[in-house]
Structures are given as structure tokens and as C-alpha cells.
Amino acid sequence: MVKNLFIPIISQEKKKEENPGSVEFQVFNFTNKIRRLTSHLELHRKDYLSQRGLRKILGKRQRLLSYLSKKKNGIRYKNLINQLDIRESQIC
Question: Which of 3, 14, 46, 65 is buried most deeply by CB count within 10 Å?
């Protein structure tokens, strides 16, 4: 049920973003996966394999955001953070 909420957002993002390998698009996809796994874990608290997968995806997203903020462009980083409504990284 939660998966259906993200399909229109992904289709809009795919039209706007031409390169699915870009950092912004990858962070967008990881954020959607994180939201789906979080809602799953609210129902299934003892699903430890999903918890591990969630931690791995969080780490990947954190590394991409760190790359974007340091090596690419800080403005793109700020826009992406605001667009996806996620917190700014405390560890830089």
C-alpha cells in the first residue's frame, strides 16, 4: 500500500531527471526504499533481515549525500535535502 504512494513521485522524477545514474536520482530511490522499509518495520518489529537492509541503504544514501555535498555542489545538496524532506547530515 505504501509502495503505491511513491509511484507517481518516481514517474515525475524520471521525467524530470534524464540520467538515472545521477547522484540525485540514486538518493531519491534510496529515500523511497527507506520509507517503504520503515513502514514495514513498524508492523514487523522483529524482522532483523529487513533492519539490516535498511541500515545498508541508509549507509549508501549517506555516502552519496556526503559525496554530493563535498565534491560536487553544495547548492545541489541543499536543494535535494529540501526536496526530499530529509535531515542534513551531522557527520561530514
Answer: 65
Strand spans (E) along the chain: none
Cβ-contact 69, 32 below 8 angstroms: no
- Grid cell, residue 1, equals 500500500
Burial 12-31 (b: 16+ CB within 10 A, else e): ebeeeeeeeeebbbebbbbb
Contact call for residues 68 and 76 (beta carbons, < 8 A): yes
CA torsion angle 21 83 31 26 (round to 10): 10
Quickly state the pLDDT bin for 69 (edges 50, 70, 90): confident
Q: Is residue 8 part of a domain?
A: no
pTM (2 decimals)? 0.73
